[in-house]
Each structure stands twice: as structure tokens, then as C-alpha cells.
Write a structure and sequence with these properties.
Blueprint lengths: L27 E5 L2 E4 L4 E4 L2 H4 L8 H11 L12 H12 L5 E5 L2 H18 L7 E5 L8 H7 L2 H4 L9 E4 L5 H7 L4 E6 L2 E2 L5 E2 L2 H14 L2 E5 L23 E4 L10 E5 L1 H4 L15 H14 L4 H22 L4 E7 L2 E6 L3 H10 L2 E2 L1 E3 L3 E4 L7 H31 L1
Parallel strand pairs: 3-15, 5-6, 5-7, 7-10, 10-11
Antiparallel strand pairs: 1-2, 2-3, 4-12, 8-9, 11-12, 13-14, 14-17, 16-17
């Protein structure tokens, strides 16, 4: 029985949906291609992709068909039994990556939890149970579980959820060999990094820095973990962002784009790293169920089409050129353009929420990030026409904001 009831039964002390999000006051009813439509029928160009999830936009016929076909057959059995679609997807992922084996999850946070467990299990299985700590980097984001927020260590994530889960040491970003090496002790098990930081402000890690981490891991018998939850699945212009370099990890967490909007994640690992992950060491009720892996296989069908990734590279070049031009026209607003592929960021001279809100009014969806950065994460199927449309809206919005700032400055000076 509830302890406190409002006088008016139609009122509530807290919304039925827990208020943990600062949601925009808008609800979408349908999507088609790279556009969303709200409940009033208004059209929006989506350059957020549900935070790098809807890589093939909305209502893609191949994804819809795959989901419907599987839904008519079988939804769920649990991992107590073999799942053919899961086995097929695992083989396709391992054939295209460094990995020998895959564990399927429902989300990126779960994929990272699995990666962390693999790292600890690896050291334990090799007679070094004291090695459990993982080195991560300032500005990183690895999920919202108690363990993954501790991996980040950011105050905004861990505040009010103490005590923090032990086992993480934070190195400065960008990567510096000396700073990382200082953190390696007899208790260190692994190093974890996003090849392109997403929430941290669209900050790519250079190939040279990734090689430094690979070298350190090899020298000290540590596992190297890549978090490609946001930058993977074609978003960088390669299947995975690290494949643009010569560096491979031992373990990799993926999610978001792998399901094209359907909840799906995975943790990929080498045989050496996962040798101790035997029956009973890890599990998931829903992870990799028939519905999820049917969509995952359909997503891979599209990524593997001839010329698809080359087109992502080409269109990302066009978008970057448009954004650089935008910066030259609005230097008082845009400090720099950075990122990789169709994971680009505008570092602003003011908080990103202002640009996100104004762009929403003009029908363009963007995503804020740390370090005063606005993320542009469009579906991988955008065309040059969509690039032009987005750039035109951004130009209009930036001009509006700059005029507001100028007027506010005049008012302040007059006071």
C-alpha cells in the first residue's frame, strides 16, 4: 500500500515513467528513411540516430522483413538451448574480426560487463587472481551499471551511487604512455578504451596511441579491451573503428548499431582471452535471442553489401567538408570539427544544449556530449542532399543563436 496519496487522484507525486531523463517535449509516431514524424505530423531530419543506433534509419524493408519473418516463427527460448540465428551471427562476426568467440547481450553496458569479467577471469585462470584492476581514461563512457560508471569515474555518473565499485584506475586523455605505465601494477588486469570517445565529446584516439596501449598490454600480460559500442558497426567508415589502424584488441564490446534499433549487444574475444569462460561463468536470459539475432544478421547483410562502407566514407567526407565550411562562417560558435566517419562533433564556444534545442525547433535532431560538443550521428544511409539540408538548418540556427548572444551582450553592457 502506498504511504502517501495525493488529494487529487489524477495527480501524482512522481510520473509513472521514472523521471531520470531530461526529455524534449516531443513524441514521435513514425519514421521513414532518415526522417521522423511527431504526433502532429511534423517532419524531422534525424542526425542523432537514437544515439548511433538507427544506422539504417527507420522502417528499412530488409530489417522489417527479417523481424516479421522471425516473429512468425519463434521469439524466445533462453540460452538453455542452441539458437541457430545466434550461431550464424557469431560466425559472421568472428570471420570479419580479430575474435574467435562471441557472447551476446541486450546492451552495450552488458557487453562491457562481460568484457570486464573476461579480463578478471583471464588473470584468475592464469594463476593471478590478484590482478583485477582495469585502466580506463578520462572522459570515457562505458555504460550505466554500477561497475561501468565506476569504470568512467565521472562525478556526474557516480554521484549518489557510492560506494564505488573498486577496480578502476583512470589515466589522462589523450593517451600518454608514461601516464598509463605509471598506473600498471601487480594488480592490473587490462586496459579499456573507446577508439573514438562518444559521450566524452567525439574524441578519436590516434593509431599511434592505440599501438602504445597494445604494446603495454603485451609487455605486461594485460588484456586490451576496445569499447566500440558507439563507434562500431560501420559508423567510422570501417566495419569497426580500430580496423582503420593495425591494432587489434583481445576483447571488444559492441551494441547500438548491431541491432539497427532492436536491443542487441555482444562481447567479442580471442580464444586466449576467453579460455576460462566456461559453462556457468556468465549468462543472459534474453541475450542473443531469436528475434534479436534475426535483426543482427539482417544488419550485417546490409553492411556487407558491395560498396556500402565505401559510401559511408564518401558521405562522411562530404559532411565533414560542410561542417568545416560552417565553422569558417561561424567561428564565434564553432571551435573545431572532429570525429571519424559519420561520428562527427562540433565543439562549441557555449553549452551544446542551446544548439540542440534550437535545431530541434527547425526540424533537425542532434545529440549533446561532454566538452561543449554536439554530436552528429546520422543514419549511415544519408545522401549528399541530406548533408546539404542539415548544413542549411545548422547555418540558420547558428545565426539565430549568435544574434541572441550579441543582443544579450549589448543589454549587459547597457546595464
Amino acid at each position: 500500500m502506498k504511504n502517501s496519496q495525493p488529494d487529487n487522484p489524477d495527480e501524482s507525486l512522481i510520473p509513472a515513467v521514472m523521471p531520470t531523463y531530461a526529455r524534449a517535449d516531443i513524441a514521435f509516431e513514425k519514421g521513414e528513411g532518415v526522417y521522423l514524424y511527431d504526433t502532429t505530423g511534423r517532419k524531422y531530419l534525424d542526425f542523432g540516430s537514437g544515439v548511433a543506433v538507427n544506422n539504417f534509419g527507420f522502417s528499412h524493408p530488409h530489417l522489417v522483413s527479417a523481424l516479421k519473418e522471425q516473429a512468425d516463427k519463434l521469439w524466445h527460448t533462453s540460452n538453455l538451448y542452441r539458437i541457430p540465428g545466434q550461431e550464424k551471427l557469431a560466425k559472421r562476426l568472428t570471420s570479419r574480426t580479430f575474435a574467435d568467440t562471441v557472447f551476446f547481450t541486450n546492451s552495450g553496458a552488458e557487453a562491457m560487463e562481460c568484457a570486464i569479467k573476461i579480463a578478471r577471469n583471464y588473470q584468475y585462470s592464469n594463476g593471478k587472481p590478484e590482478r583485477y584492476r582495469i585502466i580506463t581514461f578520462d572522459g570515457c563512457f562505458h555504460g550505466r551499471t554500477l561497475t561501468t560508471i565506476a569504470a568512467s569515474g565521472e562525478e556526474k555518473l557516480v554521484k549518489s551511487f557510492g560506494p564505488q565499485v573498486d577496480g578502476f584506475d583512470h589515466a589522462p586523455f589523450p593517451v600518454q604512455r608514461a601516464e598509463v605505465e605509471k598506473l600498471i601494477t601487480s594488480e592490473t588486469a587490462a586496459i579499456a578504451i573507446e577508439p573514438v570517445q562518444g559521450e566524452g565529446g567525439i574524441r578519436p584516439v590516434t593509431p599511434e596511441c592505440l599501438q602504445v596501449l597494445r604494446d603495454l598490454a603485451d609487455e605486461h600480460d594485460l588484456l586490451l579491451i576496445f569499447d566500440e559500442v558507439q563507434c562500431g558497426m560501420g559508423r567510422s567508415g570501417a566495419f569497426f573503428a580500430h580496423q582503420l589502424t593495425d591494432v587489434t584488441p583481445d576483447v571488444m564490446a559492441i551494441a547500438k548499431g548491431i541491432g539497427g534499433g532492436f536491443p542487441l549487444g555482444a562481447c567479442l574475444a580471442t580464444e586466449k582471452a576467453a579460455a576460462g569462460m566456461t559453462a556457468g561463468t556468465h549468462g543472459s536470459t534474453y541475450g542473443g535471442n531469436p528475434l534479436a539475432t534475426a535483426v543482427g544478421n539482417a544488419v550485417l547483410d546490409l553492411i556487407e553489401e558491395d560498396g556500402f562502407l565505401k559510401n559511408v566514407q564518401d558521405i562522411s567526407d562530404a559532411l565533414r567538408i560542410a561542417l568545416v565550411k560552417l565553422r569558417s562562417n561561424h567561428p564565434e560558435s564553432i571551435e573545431l570539427v572532429r570525429g571519424q566517419g559519420l561520428m562527427l562533433g562540433l565543439k562549441l564556444t557555449y553549452p551544446p544544449a542551446e544548439l540542440v534545442a534550437e535545431a530541434l525547433k527547425e526540424g533537425l535532431l542532434l545529440v549533446a556530449a561532454a566538452d561543449n560538443t554536439v554530436r552528429l550521428l546520422p543514419p549511415l544511409i544519408i545522401t549528399k542532399e541530406h548533408v546539404t539540408e542539415a548544413a542549411d538548418i545548422l547555418s540558420k540556427v547558428l545565426t539565430t543563436i549568435e544574434r541572441k548572444h550579441a543582443a544579450a551582450q549589448i543589454d549587459s553592457e547597457e546595464e
